[in-house]
Amino acid sequence: MADEHTHPGGDTGDVPMPDEEGLDGPGSGDLGSGQNEAPGTDGPSTGRALAQKGAEAGIKKASGSDMAVSAVRGAQKARKGDIVGGTQDVAASGAGALTTAAVAGTGVGAPIAGAAGSAVTTLAQTKAFRYVLVAVAALTACALVTQVIIVASVSAIIAGAIVPATGQTAVFSQTCTETSTPAAGPDQVVGSGIEEKAWNYLRGAGYTEEQTAGVMGNIQRESGFNPFIAEGSAGTPNVSSGWGLVQWTADRHAKVRDAVIAELGDRFYVAAPSMDQLPESMTQEDIDTMVLFQLRYIISELEGTEKAAGDHLAATTTVAEATESFESKYERAGVVALSERIANAEAFYEKFAGSPVPDAGGTQAQTGTDTPSATMTPEDVASATGASSGADCGGSSIAPSGQAGQVAECPSGTEGCVNIAALTKPSASLSCPDGTSDHGTTNAYYRGTGVQVRLCSLDGTSDTGGDPIIMNATIAPAFMAFWNEAKQAGIDLSFTSTYRSHAKQESLYASSPGGAARPGWSNHEFGMAFDIGGFPASYSRHNCGTTQTPENACSYPGTGAQLERWKQIRELGLKHGMYIHDEEFWHIEFIPSGLNRDRNIDTYQG
Questions:
Q1: φ/ψ (deg, to 5) at 340
Q2: pLDDT exceeds cutoff 70 at 590
Q3: Hey, what domains does the chain have and what are their CATH numbers?
Q4: Under a CB-based contact definition with an 8 Å cutoff, are residues 447 and 521 in contact?
Q5: What span, in angstroms and rounded, lies between the C-alpha atoms of 258 and 27?
Q6: Which 8-state DSSP code applies to residue 189?
């Protein structure tokens, strides 16, 4: 019969585990239900409780202890969501098992060890133990939370120290920059060869095609466009003979030699093995640099010491006229060979005439500034030399220390000695003196090397272009003394250009053949040079007067009140460590230029 149960043999005591539905009701040890079933209550819960008790009795009988029962009970409670109750029962089972093992290890009999384990299991299932378990769990949780809070607090403190410092670094790293995008520097002259580069440069400098061809016809005769060739293919240059594109000789050779060494370095003053061969030590970039330098130098002469030749060339209209003009007025060659020069010029005209005119100066840069020339006004010079710096930044990448700068004496104590070593030290940590405002720090340049300096701007006054009068903090106190004494003496003192950024110098160098120093080599970039405004004479290099000075300054080329004004500025400048340039009457600076040109100035280089 289907409903009959067959019991082979005697009663084994095996009781089948009830299914899940039969165990829904809480058992006798369930502390998670929150209630106890009233004795004698009828309904499904009573049946489930009885089934639970029967199952537990079977497990105890089979295992011989309460520990297995407690483990099963804990698993059932955990499955139903009573995590605390389940955990208690499982813990009770584990405690009982450990107790049994420990007692058995002492050598007592198994019954005694089992009884001890059951006792511990039963104790661990009581409400009191559960409260203890909950308390321990709570204390553990509190300890963990406290640890998290402590770690979070320490992290916050550390982050608070790091993040502001990082933020300050980001802010302080802002240095004085141009508000406009500067033109690219003269990285290379335009063209596939030296001849084409020379053509483009001269055309970009404003010379007509005929005049450019005439100049190039002469260069071909003199050097074959080898900027390193020495006369007679000599192994080393000698000032008594020719050298370079136009074969400068004697005192003109000495001057271009000094200029090359001062701006490019000793290694550029070398001789090529032959007219058809360039020095092996020179890279293509070096060659372009030398070509650009010599073309700029030629134009600087045509606008300065050789101005008469420049004016004569500018009046020519044909290739032959331009060729003859350049030879007779500028080259003044020992061997004229005019027909050869004209033939060369006509060949260049035939080859390059009609080609597009390149950017200003024949380089890759494009800019709107002009070359300082004999026809320029002081305002024109202010524009060309970068008086409008566009600088509008403040702040500092290095906090000022409160210490002011100074024009230090030389260690020897010699009067009039210039301590260049002290002047060229970083000044970013210095503070700006009274009468000036902190204009921030920047990477300024001295002889091609970047140095962190602090810039100070003169309060309440601007240059002739309306921009701040900016200077290096090292010389700011000396400049302020110079400025104040000039005002007290009633000396008319204005400036067309002061500090000039590296980007501005690159733009100026690209656009002003012969009119600006190589980027990184101008005292304007270092914040130690000032161009004086207000003179009616031409602001062109080498436009110097006849007044002689011990330091061979370029004197004002005029007379009367303006010459007296120049003398007053020079004398006051020397008192505070400033020197007039030896080739520019309007340029006054703390680090004297032209020290290789017999300035009679003692210096200390360190």
A1: -65, -40
A2: yes
A3: 21-34+42-125 (no CATH), 194-362 (1.10.530.10), 378-604 (3.30.1380.10)
A4: yes
A5: 108
A6: B
**C-alpha angle 310-312-317 in degrees, rounded to nearest 5:** 110
Token reading at 239: 């000032």
The helix (run of H) or strand (run of E) holding residue 496 is: strand 495-497
Per the listing, tokens 């440069």 go with: 201
Indicate the residue type of 553.
A
Which of 347, 302, 300 lies closest to 329, judged by CA?
302
Instruction: Give the chain's radius of gyration (CA, Å).
Output: 47
**What three-state secondary structure class fits 529?**
strand
Long-range contacts: 109-116, Cβ < 8 Å, 24+?
114/64, 114/65
Total residues belonging to the chain: 606
Instruction: Kindly give, in sequence order, each residue whose CB lies less than 8 Å from that of residue 39, ignoring residues fewer than 6 positions away.
Output: none
- Within 10 A of 98 (CB to CB), how many other CB atoms are there? 13
DSSP E strands: which ranges in 2-143?
none
Better-scored residue on pLDDT, 136 or 223:
223
Q: What mean pLDDT, rounded, does the chain reach?
A: 75
Q: What is the pTM of this model?
A: 0.47
Rounded percentage of the chain residues whose pLDDT exceeds 90: 40
For residue 166, count CB atoms less than 10 angstroms from its CB and return exposed for 0-12, middle for 13-18, buried for 19 or more: exposed
Which DSSP state fits 383? H
Q: Token digits for 30? A: 């369930």
pLDDT, tens digit (0-9, with 9 covering 90-100), for 462-494: 888 888 999 999 999 999 999 999 999 999 999
Q: What is the mean pLDDT of residues 35-50?
A: 43
